[in-house]
Amino acid sequence: MINRHIGYYLGSKLAAAVLSLATMALFVRLGGTETFGAYLVMFAWTYVVYGLSVQWMRFAFFARYREETSSDFVVTYLKSLAAAYAILIAGLAIAAAAGLLPTNFAIGLGVLFIGIVTYDALYEIARTRLRAGAVAIGVLLRAALMLLFGVIALTTLKTPLALALAVGLGHLGAACFLLVAASDKTNGTYSKEAMGDLWNYGRPLIPAYALDAVGMQLDRLLLAHYRTHVELGTYGAAADFIRQVMIVIAEAIAGAYFAIARNDIVAGRQDQASHTLGQAFLAYTALTAFAATFVLRFDRWIFDTLYGSEIGAAVEPIIGVIVINNAALIFRAYFFGQIIFLTPSSSLLFYSNLASVTTSTLLGFLLVPTYGMYGAATAMMMGHIAGSTVYIWVWRGHFVMKLPYMHAATIVFAALAAYVLSGPLANAYPTSLWAAIVNLSIFGILALLVARAFDILSFNSLTAAALARFKST
To answer: What is the SS3 assignment for 233-274?
Structure first.
């Protein structure tokens, strides 16, 4: 089962990553950094509202879903979200009518919220039910629709609101497919028992995700407040590229491993669950180590190609701290933050997020006014490290921390070796195509050797299956 899940999740996420990178590049080039920056403010506030309201319900559903009450759980979840949408729309309409929010901002936030939350909910339903094929199609469909709608919006209207509407509708389009895939579970009724189960587990998640929502968007909000939309757009273009690459694969790892680990724990198979977590840990280590060193080696080539030399030159001095920030984010949110739902209590998430947000907020207010993008990235990086430290300390000695650390260290060493070995050619021939090809080969060979040695994302099984299919044709 796990090999099939990895094939679906990783394949769809990698394809979606390519589309997402093209999407971001086109958004910045078609709209400009100012329009893109203004859209990022709207997007950031959407996630703040999401975290303050219903995000907890998504992860409570993942933790508490049981097949014997599945239809009532699904219907209860979706009807609760529908009620939340009605409250949000009414609140935004009142705020816009009273002059508390610009009308365009309220409309954009509302469409983004409904689109993102609906997609996330139906994605979670499919993931929890181990419907890997449906998840894969939904992921690809969302990426394709965001690209299509976004390009149409920016070539016709070229406004932040148009881009926000395009992104929101792209999420809704993919959500419609996932809703059809979940149609066999929509014949239940709203259940007070199901809602009570969600509430009892998810109650500690509410303040945790409220904190996380502010903390995750703090760098953008502070840059928008203290600096300009142009600087925010420049920072967002670089930071979102790295985050997108890492998160897309991180979500594939989470989708492939954690639902299966959860099923093992529910069935009392702790040893199997521990092995699955160890494999996920190695996959996250390989992702962050090779992605970080790759971006550090090829940063100017990447950003000059995607966004133009002006943005490439502007972000070059801060690329190191942005890379480390996103690597720390991956472990805090996608490794430790997923393990929390395999444990009986979710309250630790609050303390981790509190440490993260407190650290990033204090450093953000101190650093962003003076140091701008560098200060924002540094504040976020230290916040993610602080949040991860809470998990490591509390879970010391717990079976979830019995991980293959020596194997992970070997993977990091291999990634650093790729960076070092590619240095001489990169420094001597910075604009040479053949030098870039050689250096790309160095990274590719070492990454494949690591995947082979540690069976990262079931590399050996998937490769053998692909070869067998190729030989049979």
So the answer is: HHHHHHHHHHHHHHHHHHHHHHHHHHHHHHHHHHCCCHHHHH
Q: Contact at 8 Å (CB) between 115 and 170?
A: yes
Give the predicted TM-score (pTM) of the model: 0.83
Q: What are the residues whose beta carbons fall under 8 Å from the beta carbon of 211, sequence distance 6 or more? A: 51, 350, 353, 354, 356, 357
Q: Residue 244: which of 422, 43, 58 has the closest Cα?
A: 43
Q: Comparing C-alpha atoms, which of 130, 145, 129 is closest to residue 177?
A: 145
Q: How far is CA 380 from CA 94, 165, 393, in A?
A: 34, 28, 20
User: Which H or E element spans position 53?
Assistant: helix 2-53
Q: Which residue has the tokens 């916040």?
A: 383
Alpha helices in 98-226 (DSSP H): 103-128, 132-156, 160-181, 192-202, 205-226
Q: Give the HSE-up count for residue 290: Cα atoms under 13 Å, Cβ half-sphere.
A: 24
User: Locate tokens 């469409």: which residue?
Assistant: 111
- pLDDT tens digits along 237-288: 999 889 888 887 888 788 778 878 877 887 778 888 888 899 999 999 999 9
Give the pLDDT confidence of 105-155 residue by residue, as tens digits.
999 999 999 999 999 999 999 988 878 888 889 999 999 999 999 999 999
